[in-house]
Amino acid sequence: MQLFLLSRVQSWRNLNSSILQELGLAGSLETDLEHLGRTFTTIQAVLQDAEVKQWKVEAIKVWLGHLKDAAYDVDDLLDEFAIEAQWQQQRRGLKNRLRSFFSITHNPLVFRSRMAHKLKNMREKLDAIANDKNKFDLASRVGEIAADHTYDWRLTSSLVNESEILGRGKEKEELVNILLTNADDLSIHAVWGMGGLGKTTLAQLVYNEERVKQQFGLRIWVCVSTDFDIKRLTRAIIESIDGASCDLQELDPLQQRLQQKLTGKKFLLVLDDVWDDYDDRWNKLKEVLRSGAKGSAVLVTTRMEMVARRMATPFVQHMKIV
């Protein structure tokens, strides 16, 4: 459970800056977000010790349960920010802006007011949780955590637990068939939908499907999350191919190495949990990916429809609640 909690502890600090800019958040809302980030940091410092001691101290176990509940609330708020940013970007025309201003559903002032209320409640809830930790003799690891950036709040892998996905057989078959019949030089497909619907699990099922394994001699899985750093992603792709660390630091040698790895090979690359494509960075990465053989494909999972439609070429799948 520690990695689950660590993932949410990082969530506010990783809220994509482009989303905040899209929403025009400033003033008290931005201050509240910063406050939440600081509160999460103080909680994060004692998480490891709390995980150990919860089995001996029931009160600590209960405290961690409250923190986990709050973490789910954080994910819900992140979804609201992301969905609103997506809606505003899609309706930038003057006529739509005027219409949305007078719409109760999508009036930006109403949204900010609603989110201010929710953020206030979240602040109070997390402040109480942070204060409660002082009741326990928990060791702080602030220095170690600050020096260790290996915790990724949305870290995923290609391993799949098929029991976690129900009612998605049709979507899986649709994706598999599209990948198997693709004859383009490089096709890019995307699955988008709100958090918790099973986008990652669907991608894992497709990735581990026997027909996909036979079709693609090279399969690569990279968790992107909010950090679309082209050097990090290029290095991660190389490391996934080699199964070993890559020490190259500069972009040019990294891209040359990746091009060598992909040339003439038919590959499937999964980019999981993408929050922003940063057009220029994605285009640079995409050019290298075109080195693969015909039929190579990229599968993107994201919460953001605008990201899915900007990145994908022929196919975008919207996951909904079943």
Description:
This protein is α/β, with parallel strands linked by helices and 322 residues long. The protein has two domains: 2-147, no CATH class; 162-318, P-loop containing nucleotide triphosphate hydrolases (Rossmann fold), CATH 3.40.50. The protein contains 15 helices and five strands. The protein has helices spanning 2-9, 17-23, 28-44, 47-53, 58-90, 94-101, 108-132, 142-147, 169-181, 199-207, 210-215, 230-242, 251-262, 279-289, 305-311, and strands spanning 186-192, 218-225, 267-274, 296-302, 315-318. A five-stranded parallel sheet has the order 2-3-4-1-5, sandwiched between helices. Strand 3, helix 14 (279-289) and strand 4 form a beta-alpha-beta unit. It is globular and about 60 Å long. Residues 1-5, 97-104 and 143-154 have low confidence and may be disordered. Keywords: ATP-binding, Nucleotide-binding, Plant defense, Repeat. This is NB-ARC domain-containing protein. It comes from Salix viminalis. It holds the Pfam family NB-ARC.
